[in-house]
């Protein structure tokens, strides 16, 4: 492998996450390089469970993660899907480094960049713009969470399905129907009926 090709591949590797940062902050080269050196990268096999304590915040470069809770009867309730260009974290567990309430698992073979809590705290000091980025991201995530609660309380299953399609375009072609049904709070059979009505 030539050095030119290697450098090109490395640049492409970071393209999506750097574009994600640029949605809220403008990082110059002097700020970008230390972030790239601190970012860790790995591939997570489909169905792998990621945490007991949320030690990392993950950016999905390719694939899809899900965040879910398991109730006392062993039933899983999907809270959030995290496909490409999304961040995944149990924020309370990550911030306090305490046992996680939510579980994160891979719905597909998934490539992620990730940062540990201590590394991210150090980056906040070195690159203050990052603290602004994650503040905005958490604000947006909280807004999304509030809207999801309101939707579950006030909208019909069919309306929730339409919102899912808008929020996650093309994702339903990639993941199992039971996962979508869990996210919507309905049975797979009922989801199938909704799909038929809307086809």
Describe the overall structure.
The protein has 199 residues and is of the alpha+beta class. It contains 9 helices and 7 strands. A 4-stranded antiparallel sheet has the order 1-7-2-5. The protein has a 3-stranded antiparallel sheet with strand order 4-3-6. The relative contact order is 0.14. Mean pLDDT is 92; it is low at 3-9.
Describe this structure in a few short sentences.
This protein is an alpha+beta fold and 199 residues long. The protein has helices spanning 3-13, 15-21, 29-38, 91-96, 117-126, 128-154, 157-167, 177-184, 188-198, and strands spanning 40-44, 56-62, 64-70, 76-83, 87-88, 103-106, 110-116.
